[in-house]
Amino acid sequence: VPLKQGRSLMDWIRLTKSGKDLTGLKGRLIEVTEEELKKHNKKDDCWICIRGFIYNVSPYMEYHPGGEDELMKAAGSDGTDLFDQVHRWVNYESMLKECLVGRMAVKPAVPKDYHEEKKVLNGMLPKSQVPDALAKEGPVSPSYDWFQTDSLVTIVIYTKQKDVNLDSVIVDHQYDSFRAETIIKDYSYLIHIELSHAIQEDFSVRVVANVGKIEIVLKKKENTSWECLGHPLENHNSLIPKKDTGLYYRRCQLISKEDATHDTKLFCLMLPPSTHLQVPIGQHVYLKLTIAGTEIVKPYTPVSASLLSEFKEPVIPNNKYIYFLIKIYPAGLFTPELDHLQIGDFVSVSNPEGNFKISQFQELEDLFLLAAGTGFTPMVKILNYALTNISSLRKVKLMFFNKTEDDIIWRSQLEKLAFKDKRFDVEFVLSKPTSEWNGKRGHISLDLLSEFLKRSSDKSKVLICICGPMPFTEQGMRMLHDLNFSKDEIHGFTA
Ligand code: FAD
Ligand code: NAP
């Protein structure tokens, strides 16, 4: 039938991606009895069952190419036969994904071999194994559920939090272990399972932020029906303070290595296809290498590929590359070894850590960055993010401390960025300059800071980030307190 303007398939796809709650259930999935299904038989409240799954198709009515009347034929009932007669080739699971209400209630079957607390067909929301005391102190425990089609298995995590995004979940499928760690404040909620059947290497992760739902869509290797998701492994379905969880690693391949200065290199590592990991702004990871038979671990802060080309950081789900700016210390333990790696070699990369919170940018007007040497690394993503996403921002100033001009990382990029974006300014301070240097000299000091840290207005909201050698950072933070900046206005990278 002719559809109204603004009701094309593309419009429908846009609507489904808008994050709007199309079921009216705020992302919850429920079990639906036959009696309940029958009640939803009107145009503005129309549920239909297809292959055991219930969809609220009211929002889809005006977009249905066959017209509303055709859709209404199955209102409040099982429309599988009708659907199959007309368009069984249509990928309704993905088209109507956001309209999914839940499943038809069937009698729960008793799991045979598995301990997993789940009804085989329709067990919604298994009870979490969170100890009561912990649940009282920490955030509300998330829960999970799963469902399947012929070719896909979808694991849904209900975080019960609003501020989740693609950084909040880290997924790995290695050997026999499937692991999805969701970070909620200072806690980690883990799905940890030996899957009952084989899956393909790649999978997708989606977040419905406004309802706090995370969906991990796995592709089955064989189109068979799974009776259960699998065996629970250690700490499965539990919420644990992050500090009590171990570091989890995956092997990443070295893709490229380029000089950034005479002693600092830009390393590009590729995540395995079976990993979803995005390092949040201001956080670091641990790199692990076996050096002389011993596993050595050091922290490094991922950066963007450059300050300019990725000025607007692409929001690619499952972004596969991680970049690092790493200074090679000839007498160091880890960095010479890293430098000797050949393209194609592997390095283990941990889950992210760190306490920088993106909420610190809220309504920010003045951002001041104080960096020394490779202490510049956390500033890269902070700069990119702030200039791109914070509309209240009036000015961003970087004071970058180095020994000599040759040590300044990405100097020309910083200068180009300052030219391109009038809100951004950079000042270089050198402790061991040549006689030709016309710029600022010396170390971090009260004089330098008081001249540099000028608010754009008396009451402007300010954030000052500081990172470098530990004594530099600690000294700088003391000076900032002396200059009457409050704790909330200072973020020291002191990890
Ligand atoms: P080390 O073996 O630690 O030696 C470093 C230097 O110190 C060498 O010159 C060595 O000769 C000297 N040295 C070692 N021990 C002594 C001693 N007892 N007395 C005197 N001198 C000594 N670095 C980056 O390049 N990029 C980053 O993105 C980055 N991010 C970081 C994030 C965090 C949270 C932290 C804490 C550090 C970060 N670092 C970063 C630093 C990094 O973790 C390593 O410390 C650095 O790479 C040096 O490691 P190394 O094993 O090669 O050198
Ligand atoms: P560097 O080249 O040795 O020093 C950079 C500048 O800082 C130089 O001008 C240096 O002056 C000055 N400086 C050093 N110590 C100082 C101090 N105590 N007080 C005042 N100024 C000081 O630096 P780098 O080798 O790149 O080292 C960077 C450091 O940052 C490493 O220690 C690394 O661990 C740390 N880092 C931390 C994080 C994090 O997130 N926590 C991230 C990245 C890097 P001089 O000429 O006098 O030496």
Automatic annotation (TrEMBL):
EC number: 1.6.2.2
Pfam families in alphabetical order: CS (PF04969), Cyt-b5 (PF00173), FAD_binding_6 (PF00970), NAD_binding_1 (PF00175)
CDD domains in the record: cyt_b5_reduct_like (cd06183), p23_NCB5OR (cd06490)
Catalytic activity: 2 Fe(III)-[cytochrome b5] + NADH = 2 Fe(II)-[cytochrome b5] + NAD(+) + H(+)
Record keywords: Endoplasmic reticulum, FAD, Flavoprotein, Heme, Iron, Metal-binding, NAD, Oxidoreductase
Residue stretches making up the CS domain: 139-230
Compartments in which it is found: Endoplasmic reticulum
Major localisation: endoplasmic reticulum
Ranges where the Cytochrome b5 heme-binding domain occurs: 29-105
Family named by the database record: Belongs to the flavoprotein pyridine nucleotide cytochrome reductase family. Belongs to the cytochrome b5 family.
The protein, known as: Cytochrome b5 reductase 4
Organism whose genome encodes this protein: Myotis brandtii
Taxonomy of the source species: Eukaryota, Metazoa, Chordata, Craniata, Vertebrata
